[in-house]
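Hello,

Our lab assistant flagged a job as stuck in the queue for most of the afternoon. It eventually completed. Since we weren't sure the result was trustworthy after the delay, we are filing this so someone can double-check. Below is the sequence as submitted and the structure that was eventually returned. Let us know if re-running is recommended.
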Amino acid sequence: MSKTQIPTNGIADDAVGNTKLDLTANYAFTGTVTGTPSDFVKLITTTISSNVGSVDFGSTYINSTYKVYKIYYRGIILTGTDNIGLRIGASGTLLTSSNYQKGGFAQSYESTSFSGVSGTTDSGYFFGGHHENSAGGQEMSGEITMYDLVNNTPNKAVVHIGNRVGTGANRFDVKGFMNPNTQTCNIISLFTIGSENMSAGQVSLYGIKEWKNI
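-- returned structure --
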């Protein structure tokens, strides 16, 4: 006799193991599944639907809860030839002093060579513009990892990986950045370096837990 439903009290706790379940099958849940903690926590997604010069995240999200933060940006479109970058700061004031340091390279999809970049006098973490500017009206996407923003120690580190359409070639960028400021940071700003705006795209901020935060 087949049954389509078994009463809850008809099954002993932990009675059904992996030998009775097909672990290669797909299962659909219609309710909320709890008890599956993740160390990778989505904090907020901002959708750009009109012209803006920056997307900012303050102390509501940038605080001592996490030591590592990550941004994914997707489909960002500039209103004209420009570049995007990141600044950090505290108490609503961004650090604009010319002591952001950079190193890395930009690969052109049209050739097998790549060009290196270095410097210690930028006024932000600038993701493009070292070899050529990013073209307006074209989508760009990438990811940014930020380390120890909330520590009062120097060398706030950022790693950026991104794809963009340059004014002369398609670019794949891999760059690392540091800032020697010892300020405890609680604000970050993804912004256009020049006078253009971002007109479309999504920017998602994530916090990554350490073992002691779990």
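-- support follow-up --
The delay was a queue issue, not a problem with the job. The result is valid. The domain at 40-213 is CATH 2.60.120 (Jelly Rolls). The chain has one domain: 40-213.
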